[in-house]
Amino acid sequence: MAHAGRARPGYRIRGEIVSIDAPLYERDPEAWRAHLAEGNAKQPRKRVSADVLLRDHAERILLVDPKYKPDWDTPGGMAEANEPPHLTVQRELKEELGLDIMAGALLVVDWVSPHEPWDDLLAFIFDGGELSNEQIARIKLRDDELERFEFCTPEQARQRLRPYVWRRVAAALEALATGRLQYLQDGYLK
């Protein structure tokens, strides 16, 4: 039992007395940072993909045909460690198609549940806007991940994309029309 008027034991940190009952971040900032780092190392990690919706003057959607999987896709790719999704889009467009385009508004966030060998994923789609004829003429396949690219009508895109990717793209088109960000789970509106 504490006695009235008696000071509680404490620590002197940077010239100040800190109570023994003080939280760790006050008592021992270095130990607190080590504790946070240990917790961070144990927390689950999420995979993140970031794609972009690019269109031509006829409102056709740019699709790419990757060599490493059977279906077409939207331009973009997987984020690298500690890379913001909008910068993932910019890097992937430059690396794969030679386009220097900044990601526009975020249109879709889709949480994709674990499937086959993959953990869950957060998939982002950003607006890339309408490409000019000059930009379209400069598109070049720059690495060996892509077989080809093509501008497709929404119906052609629906036929070429995996069903859940098409649902994500359809939601992105809806977001463009309404100005409202779409949150999906496995391609379905939540």
How would you characterize the overall build of this protein?
By secondary structure, the chain is of the alpha+beta class. It has two domains: 10-42, no CATH class; 47-189, Nucleoside Triphosphate Pyrophosphohydrolase (Alpha-Beta Complex), CATH 3.90.79.10. The chain has six helices and ten strands; from the N terminus they run E-E-H-H-E-E-E-H-E-E-H-E-H-H-E-E. The chain has helices at 24-27, 29-42, 85-97, 133-138, 154-160, 163-178, and strands spanning 10-13, 16-19, 47-55, 61-66, 76-78, 106-112, 121-130, 146-152, 182-185, 188-189. The strands form three sheets. The protein has a six-stranded mixed β-sheet, with helices on both faces. The chain has a two-stranded antiparallel ribbon with strand order 1-2. Helix 5 (154-160) packs antiparallel against helix 6 (163-178). The chain starts with 9 loop residues before the first strand and ends with a strand. The model has no long low-confidence stretch (mean pLDDT 90).
The total number of structural domains is: 2
Give me the side-by-side strand order of the main sheet: 5-3-7-6-9-10
CATH topology of the largest domain: Nucleoside Triphosphate Pyrophosphohydrolase
Instruction: Note poorly predicted spans.
Output: none
Helix content, binned percent: 25-40%
Radius of gyration: 24 Å
CATH arch. level architecture of the largest domain: Alpha-Beta Complex
Distance between the termini: 54 Å
Structural class: alpha+beta
CATH homologous superfamily of the largest domain - what is it? Nucleoside Triphosphate Pyrophosphohydrolase
Order of helices and strands: EEHHEEEHEEHEHHEE
Task: Please give the CATH class of the largest domain.
Answer: Alpha Beta
Number of helical regions: 6
What's the average pLDDT? Answer: 90
